Amino acid sequence: MTGDQPSVVALGGGHGLFATLTAIRRLTSAITAIVTVADDGGSSGRLRAELGVIPPGDLRMALAALAGDGESAEVWTRTVQHRFRGTGALAGHSVGNLIIAGLTEVLGDTVAALDELGRVLQLDGRVLPMAQIALTIEADVAGLEADPRVNRAIRGQVAVATTPGQVRRVRLIPSDPPACPEALDAIDNADLVILGPGSWFSSVIPHVLVPELLEALIGTQARKVLVLNLAAQPGETAGFSAERHLHVLSQHAPGLAVDHVVIDSGSVPEGRERDHLRRAAKSLGAQVLFADVAEPGTHKHHSGKLASVLATLARRDTDSSGLGGKESASWR
């Protein structure tokens, strides 16, 4: 707890983490974003290959989500999110990706680079990589061979996210990467830890595949909340039910328990499907909370609605119904 504000840690990557951070900053400024570092596509992939840096794209998006509201911060936020046009060597690169890569070379440390850019952006909180080196995702994928029982190994985040087959399991290369020490400290000192939403196999599950990070998640005294996606994703989780998402996470993270699973009430119909989801959540030690958290007509989370749910779950005296009681005044 920082003053009268709870300390919140959010783990993920890409647009899913952006949505979570946009919601959390309505509640507290004591935020730590822990970001996946396995991207190998686009501007991030090019900088990773050419400079050997941790892919900066997801880190940049997290910084933008937590940037301040002042005029200077807003100008810098638009700038770091800007992509160069044209057809030359800079075409497609994000300005922020180049700044993070440059600061990392100058300062010799990715965390120091993120902290420095965070000061320019007048950040609410802190953005950290989940590991100290760039990682590679490898997946076992079914449905790519004539025999549906045969799995093929697919390597790379972009390849995994866009495969026409069905992902069965993922792993990291290397398998035992060094976790970011500051990320471990943040989890240990958190009041609330949030995992998801996001690309399940390439943004969410990679966090629990870093052994030190999984150990920290298992050992923390923080309340742990899993936010499920609003719909299955083409390719990566095509055809997955909400229940299947939980089973897959459990298979990749033995020993991990969570307190609450948050899912949009419109994503799972009343009846048997909800009963199956509750049983799957129980295997993780969690209660399921069905709530309206979607932007109407989209598969995106509404930051205000999600913030309201997370505010209630962060209270230590939340009753067994999940949404009992009123928000603490300090969270309004």
From TrEMBL:
Species? Antrihabitans stalagmiti
Q: Please give the function described in this protein's UniProt entry.
A: Required for morphogenesis under gluconeogenic growth conditions.
Name listed for the protein in its UniProt record: Putative gluconeogenesis factor
Q: Where in the cell is it found?
A: Cytoplasm
Q: Name one GO biological process term.
A: regulation of cell shape
> Record's Pfam families?
CofD
Its domain of life? Answer: Bacteria
Its cellular-component GO annotations read: cytoplasm
Keywords, in A-Z order: Cytoplasm
The principal location of this protein is cytoplasm
Matching entries from Gene3D superfamilies are given as: CofD-like domains (3.40.50.10680)
- Gene responsible for this protein: yvcK
Q: For this protein, what is any one GO molecular function term?
A: LPPG:FO 2-phospho-L-lactate transferase activity
* Family recorded in the similarity comment: Belongs to the gluconeogenesis factor family.
